[in-house]
């Protein structure tokens, strides 16, 4: 019997009203994550991956669906319950500069969650701040520095320290390395993996960088215009990409091999509007294999290989699956 997942999301929806109608930012997304694992969420800009992470954390309230954390339904919670959840569920934001208060020193920024959510004395706060600084690789000489005095890597380490200071069990990482140089990206990714191993942390890792998601994720979910189109283990997805959109997405990943000619799949056609979308596959307008059914009927995710789910009417036919 498998362990109960730390997070289970069922048919989650997040809609935003606009003057032209309703934006379907996240539309009927379901998944589970086991404790200590990383779910990578990938897709092009505007696919709803960041909104998904924020909705799970109640930074934005869901429109419909169900969220279960550690076996408890947290879809609708009181302010007191949400405060308790904040100790267990945290986020690392994409932009390490705008997510920090420019008037707070490094020490103040990291200590703030302890001051707000605990009754810890000043000496305990100081000890915990210096401990987490050491863990994330921030030298003590920066303790009174302000965000504008630090580079992007150190600012992001502050964001990681601030997220971890409460000893959470689950962290949403919203493109935490996209604003950093490649060499700094590697340092931050290795740091996050080490901390995960030490603390048995569970991550949702939101990114558009497929090389990054391959390195850090146990499972990958591909999103397109608010919906999940494919989900599988990392090795499985890179070996057997089955959805036409996933194939196009992975074809854009550069290979460090000058002798290997890689065919890039170019997508053509209009991107479907997320405002009041009509029934049918949202990728159909750009899909070279779309049929009349694809434009009229929403595809349902089905398990076409072990633990490999795809939402495509023609997935078996196009990939030679029984």
Secondary-structure blueprint:
Elements: E1 7-18, E2 21-33, E3 38-42, H1 49-56, E4 64-69, E5 72-73, H2 79-86, E6 89-92, H3 106-117, H4 122-136, H5 152-164, E7 170-174, H6 182-199, E8 202-206, H7 210-216, E9 219-224, E10 227-233, H8 234-239, H9 244-251, H10 292-296, E11 302-305, E12 308-310, H11 315-319
Parallel strand pairs: 3-8, 3-9, 6-7, 7-8
Antiparallel strand pairs: 1-2, 1-4, 4-5, 9-10, 10-12, 11-12
Total strand segments:
12
Q: Count the domains.
A: 2
Can you tell me the CATH class of the largest domain?
Alpha Beta
The stretches of 5 or more residues where confidence is low (pLDDT under 50) are: none
What is the 3D shape?
Answer: globular
Q: Overall pLDDT, averaged?
A: 90
Order of helices and strands: EEEHEEHEHHHEHEHEEHHHEEH
Residues in helix, %: 25-40%
Strands of the widest sheet, in order across it, are: 6-7-8-3-9-10-12-11
CATH topology of the largest domain: Rossmann fold
The CATH superfamily of the largest domain bears the name P-loop containing nucleotide triphosphate hydrolases
User: Main sheet?
Assistant: 8 strands, mixed
What percent of residues are in strands? 15-25%
């Amino acid at each position: 019997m498998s362990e109960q997942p730390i997070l289970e999301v069922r048919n989650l929806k997040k809609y935003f009203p606009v003057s032209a109608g309703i934006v379907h930012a996240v539309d009927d997304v379901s998944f589970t994550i086991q404790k200590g694992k990383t779910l990578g969420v990938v897709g092009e800009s505007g696919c709803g991956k960041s909104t998904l992470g924020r909705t799970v954390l109640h930074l934005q309230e869901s429109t419909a669906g169900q969220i279960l954390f550690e076996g408890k339904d947290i879809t609708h919670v009181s302010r007191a319950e949400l405060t308790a959840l904040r100790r267990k569920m945290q986020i690392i934001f994409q932009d390490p500069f705008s997510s920090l208060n420019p008037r707070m020193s490094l020490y103040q920024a990291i200590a703030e969650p302890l001051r707000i959510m605990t009754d810890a004395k000043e000496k305990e706060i100081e000890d915990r701040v210096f401990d987490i600084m050491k863990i994330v690789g921030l030298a003590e000489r920066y303790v009174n520095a302000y965000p504008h005095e630090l580079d992007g890597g150190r600012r992001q380490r502050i964001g990681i320290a601030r997220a971890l200071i409460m000893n959470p069990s689950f962290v949403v990482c919203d493109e935490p390395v996209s604003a950093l140089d490649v060499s700094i990206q590697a340092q931050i990714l290795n740091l996050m993996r080490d901390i995960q191993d030490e603390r048995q942390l569970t991550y949702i890792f939101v990114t558009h960088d497929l090389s990054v998601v391959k390195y850090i994720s146990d499972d990958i979910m591909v999103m397109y215009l608010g919906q999940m189109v494919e989900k599988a283990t990392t090795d499985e997805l890179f070996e057997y990409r089955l959805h036409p959109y996933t194939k196009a997405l992975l074809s854009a990943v550069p290979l460090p091999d000058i002798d290997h000619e890689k065919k890039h799949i170019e997508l053509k056609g209009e991107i479907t509007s997320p405002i009041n979308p009509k029934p049918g596959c949202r990728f159909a307008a750009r899909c070279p294999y779309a049929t009349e059914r694809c434009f009229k009927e929403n595809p349902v995710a089905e398990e076409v290989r072990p633990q490999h789910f795809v939402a495509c009417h023609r997935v078996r036919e196009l990939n030679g699956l029984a």
